[in-house]
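Quick one, probably user error.
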């Protein structure tokens, strides 16, 4: 979900929600129906200071679905879809005209029966175009006012840090359990991209709801010796990324280098994972309750 804060709207800064989670019980142990979402620190805050909403009268820092650029991109996508369906309908209409002329001139026996499918396709295209126009008008009427796109407010935002968790040699990382595969890449195309040289030998099963569940982590041994191959037959690990600007993309894991700090050094050198943690320090967005 693409988001932007009220404060970052003027600068047109935006990002996306990393994942959602449900608060089963509040801090007092009572059942809770609140839904939280997590995003990167730099998406929600322009400063590197800790922020936490406290007090009943504290002003809320609202978060909106879609910044200006992403909202305009959505409108352009609707208009582009309309254009594509218009082109399809025009092509089908030309085919119908040709079939009708062929049938009238007796050049093609049985052409009348062949008209039924194109006519049905043309009606379907017209319905889709009509629905897209309605959808565009609805979006403009109900969402063009940026104030109507508030979906919640910042609840907690720790400062960006490269420090590891106290007493441990691990960074404090967050992770979700599903990845939305989106609609840009079809199920067959995605399977082909993941197993380009293993035709018919696919372990990947496209989820019916597009929510691919994450199970386990990549082991050190697997990082050293990948068990997949790319389109040139080289060992690799295929990775997926779902971003605000790019949607779902597929690529190769390129490997990384890690450097340990020396005890003789006065300033520790962070490992690669620690640097990544600085980029992935998370903030929490509480779902806004209706007035």
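Nope, works fine. Designed sequence:
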């Amino acid at each position: 979900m693409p988001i932007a804060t009220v404060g970052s709207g003027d600068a047109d800064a935006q990002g996306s929600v990393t994942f959602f989670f449900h608060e089963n019980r509040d801090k007092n142990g009572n059942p809770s129906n609140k839904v939280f979402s997590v995003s990167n620190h730099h998406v929600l805050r322009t400063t590197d200071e800790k922020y936490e909403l406290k007090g009943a009268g504290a002003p809320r820092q609202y978060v909106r679905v879609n910044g200006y650029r992403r909202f305009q991109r959505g409108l352009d996508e609707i208009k582009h879809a309309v254009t594509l369906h218009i082109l399809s309908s025009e092509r089908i209409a030309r085919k119908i005209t040709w079939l009708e002329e062929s049938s009238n001139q007796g050049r093609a026996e049985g052409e009348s029966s062949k008209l039924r499918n194109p006519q049905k396709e043309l009606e379907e295209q017209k319905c889709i175009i009509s629905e897209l126009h309605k959808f565009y008008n609805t979006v403009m009427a109900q969402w063009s006012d940026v104030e109507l796109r508030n979906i919640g407010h910042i609840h907690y935002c720790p400062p960006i840090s490269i420090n590891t968790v106290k007493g441990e040699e691990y960074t404090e990382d967050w992770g979700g359990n599903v990845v939305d595969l989106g609609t840009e890449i079809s199920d067959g195309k995605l399977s082909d991209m993941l197993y380009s040289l293993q035709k018919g030998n696919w372990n990947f099963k496209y989820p019916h709801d597009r929510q691919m569940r994450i199970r386990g982590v990549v082991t050190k041994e697997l990082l050293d010796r990948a068990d997949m191959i790319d389109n040139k037959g080289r060992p690799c690990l295929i990775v997926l990324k779902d971003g605000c600007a790019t949607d779902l993309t597929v690529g190769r894991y390129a490997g990384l280098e890690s450097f340990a700090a020396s005890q003789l050094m006065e300033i520790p050198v962070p490992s690669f994972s620690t640097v990544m943690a600085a980029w992935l320090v998370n903030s929490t967005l509480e779902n806004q309750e209706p007035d």
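The two ends are 23 Å apart (CA to CA).
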